[in-house]
Amino acid sequence: MPAADTGASTVVGADPVTADSRMRPGGPGYRRVSLALFLAGVATFALLYSTQALLPLVSRDFGVTASAASWTVSGATGGLALFVLPMSALSERFGRRTLMTASLAVAVTVGLLVPFAPSLGTLIALRAVQGAALAGLPASATAYLAEEVTPKALITAIGLFVAGNSVGGMSGRVITGWVAQEWGWRVAVGTIGVIAVACALAFRLLLPEPKHFKAGSLHPRVLARTVRDHLADPLLRRLYAIGALFMTVFGGVYTVIGYRLTDRPFGLPQGVIGSIFLVYLVGTVTASTAGRLVGRLGRRGALYLAAGTTTAGLLLSLASTLPLVLLGLVLITAGFFTGHAVASSAVSHTAKRGRAQASALYQSAYYIGSSTGSTLGAVAFHAGGWAGTAGMGVLAVLGVVTITLFGSRAARLAVRVA
After folding, report:
1. Alpha-carbon distance 319 to 331, whole Å?
2. Is 28 exposed, middle or buried (0-12, 13-18, 19+ CB in 10 A)?
3. Alpha-carbon distances, residue 326 vs 109, 220, 246, 267, 334 (angstroms)
4. N or C: which end of the chain has fewer CB within 10 A?
């Protein structure tokens, strides 16, 4: 990709001066970058999933089923999945920092309009626009880090960004749960909008100007060639599928869990259900330590561990006692965020050029998995209760294991041939 390779030659090339000028842990600017992208991750996930913990209240307010209300989540993640690739192309031309700033500005503006949606259809439309705007964040953030941070620090830096995602997802759901219990779901999502505005302003002030970005071309033929090359890479295809399958599990579980916990035998109030999402703190820890885990077990070993942990959590969540259900959610969350951090960082490491497009394809697959999981999880819940949702999750995890086993076999064959 000659023109749209935006800094890829700078990042991957052997120029020692260029490599030495990139940020490393403890060096100048690294903490600012980490905090800025951490806050961007907080804002992204808080906005993207702002209605997820409130679905029972949305269902009641508009008089619709769980499947219909789940589209307020699927619409946002679907919008992100559709627009993440075009947004990554814009970031190649106009810069990562510029696009991330613009995306957050539009998303938080829409977030302040969401509480005033007069109907479910309007709410879903606003959420889809919000998701499309947020599409400028994930791929641009990982591409920014790949260009500005040393390779050895990359997985840790991306892990911190993913940790910000987990904090945003957790805090958004906890805050909305308690606020909605007192003042309703509209005030709750409005509160998240105000918090996201503060995160966006801090992000813009903290994130340094990039030093290794080189503007590329927006020519469709160049973009199409880059996308084709990435999709032709077997390893990247496997990583995209793994990200989608992990997110199918996660999206299905957390879309439906509110309905399960408000029903018998639990009957929990909305505020307590929102606090259940404190288990996201587990994801914050596991995502930020993914680099050390890969160092000990290797990438495939870390993926097997993530899949096993997620499966154990799904099986535990079938219990009818609240402590076991909570333990199951902890394991599901830990497994998901570990798998996501390992797969997403592997994409940035594998792609030698057009990193923004490579990351965008991963994010697109990831959020297609989220939309699919949210919808299928709700449908499975209606058909077979929580056992149906958990069963769907186990099938998705089996897909992760199968793909990873295939990758291991392909790697062994490649070694023999060499």
Report:
1. 14
2. exposed
3. 35, 48, 19, 15, 12
4. C
3-state secondary structure 261-289: HHCCCCCCCHHHHHHHHHHHHHHHHHHHC
Asked if the model's pLDDT at residue 9 lies above 60, the reply is no
CA distance 202 to 118: 32
- Please write the tens of the pLDDT for every residue from 21-54: 766 666 667 778 878 888 888 888 889 888 877 8
Q: Is 149 helix (H, G, I), strand (E, B) or coil?
A: strand
Residue 342 class from Cβ within 10 Å (0-12 exposed, 13-18 middle, 19+ buried)? buried
Q: How far apart are CA 391 and CA 397, in angstroms?
A: 10
Give dist(CA 91, CA 85) in Å, integer: 10
Looking at residue 54, the DSSP 8-state letter turns out to be G
Q: Tokens for 92? A: 């190649």
Measured in whole angstroms, the distance separating CA 27 from the mean position of its chain's CA atoms is 27
DSSP string, 318-381: TSSSHHHHHHHHHHHHHHHHHHHHHHHHHHHHH-SS-HHHHHHHHHHHHHHHHHHHHHHHHHHH
Distances (CA, A) of 222 to 79, 85, 149, 208: 24, 13, 26, 28
Joined together, the tokens standing for residue 104 give 């957050």
Query: Within 13 Å of residue 62, how many CA atoms lie on the same side as its CB?
Result: 24
Name the CA radius of gyration of the chain, rounded.
20
Q: What is the pLDDT of residue 10?
A: 35
3-state secondary structure of 176: helix
Packing angle between helix 322-350 and helix 138-148, nearest 10 degrees? 50
When pLDDT is cut at 50, 70 and 90, the band that residue 228 belongs to is confident
- If you search the block for the tokens 């079938």, which residue do you land on? 318
Between CA 338 and CA 103, with CA 364 as vertex, the angle to 5 degrees is 100
**Interatomic CA distance for residues 195 and 84, integer angstroms:** 23
CA dihedral sign, ordered 319, 320, 322, 323: negative
Residue recorded with tokens 């099938």: 395
Judge contact between 65 and 191, C-beta under 8 A: no
Integer Cα distance of 268 and 255 in angstroms: 16
In the chain, the N- to C-terminal Cα span, in Å, equals 28
Closest-CA residue to 57 (of 150, 185, 147, 164)? 185
Cβ pair 55, 180 in contact under 8 A: no
Q: Does residue 17 register a pLDDT over 50?
A: no
Q: Which two tokens stand for residue 269?
A: 């109030």
